[in-house]
Design brief:
eight-stranded mixed beta sheet, single chain, mainly beta, five-stranded antiparallel beta sheet
């Protein structure tokens, strides 16, 4: 077993250890009482409200001041509470459903993660960087077998960014800063964050400087472990011997017998082979 596999085993075992102490996750089904007019949720910094009006659902959301908030709350709702920076959206629907469902999803664009302190990987070495990104929350109206997606919003919206050598060879992304933890036990679990283990393998002849990592979240599957931590499948970024070309590999989520990991949402996009082998400056910066 390689060092990387040992780290992943330790990571999964730790996630399993405190599963029994956790309450229900924030995602899943929320049955609606016929007299009930709406619901509200706190999911980290996200404040989300859903209210039924005749023939329509109204969703309202805004964000608290603390992007590191770990609170999770759920309550009923009589009326939507107005906030100056609130986003409001309406969805026409013939009748009130019997249930609202919250579904976690990965971000709808790649996220460029910038470590607080640049990291060097010497030649012949590899390391696992634990990247944390915001979850997206999809609200669904459910009536029997009928499921209607109402709207989707990030747990905490990152800023827009661009990753690439120039405007013709690059992608519009989100930007996020990260402590880029190398040890899983140093990562703080937050309800609105998704962890992606990224193995960086340097086969070049000199040290590889990591100042930015382009994480292609739309092509990743989203999982939840037994302690309600959100994960994507692991990634491996390999720098070739010439130091210029790079390969991106989507790893399988390994499932130890003691670990109860389940799929919450499928990838938004299907990756093409060309996208998995590209110039290194399209993967790392």
């Amino acid at each position: 077993m390689t060092e990387t596999e040992q780290q992943q085993d330790a990571l999964l075992a730790m996630a399993d250890a405190d599963a029994a102490t956790k309450t229900r996750p924030w995602w899943g089904d929320y049955p609606m009482d016929p007299e009930q007019r709406g619901m509200s949720w706190h999911i980290g910094p996200l404040r989300l409200q859903a209210r039924w009006w005749p023939q329509e659902w109204r969703l309202a959301w805004h964000y608290g001041d603390d992007p590191l908030d770990t609170s999770v709350e759920h309550a009923g709702l009589d009326d939507i509470e107005a906030f100056p920076d609130m986003t409001l959206a309406r969805y026409a629907l013939g009748k009130a459903p019997s249930c609202l469902r919250l579904v976690p999803r990965v971000a709808d664009r790649s996220v460029v993660v910038r470590p607080d302190i640049p990291l060097y990987v010497p030649p012949g070495e590899e390391t696992v960087i634990h990247v944390s990104t915001s979850v997206w929350v999809q609200v669904q109206a459910v009536e029997g077998e009928k499921v209607v997606a109402l709207g989707e919003m990030p747990g905490y919206r990152p800023s827009d960014s661009f990753f690439g050598a120039n405007t013709r060879e690059g992608d519009v992304c989100y930007a996020s800063r990260s402590l880029a933890r190398l040890r899983m036990e140093d990562v703080v679990q937050r309800p609105h964050r998704v962890l992606t283990p990224v193995t960086v393998r340097n086969k070049g002849e000199d040290s590889l400087l990591i100042e930015r990592i382009n994480v292609p979240l739309p092509i990743l599957t989203l999982y939840a472990s037994a302690n309600h931590q959100l994960w994507t499948q692991p990634l491996t970024l390999e720098r070739g011997r010439d130091g210029k070309e790079g390969a991106l590999k989507l790893e399988e989520m390994r499932l130890p017998a003691s670990m109860q990991v389940r799929v919450l949402s499928e990838p938004r996009e299907v990756p093409d082979k060309q996208g998995l082998f590209r110039a290194l400056d399209r993967l790392l910066g």
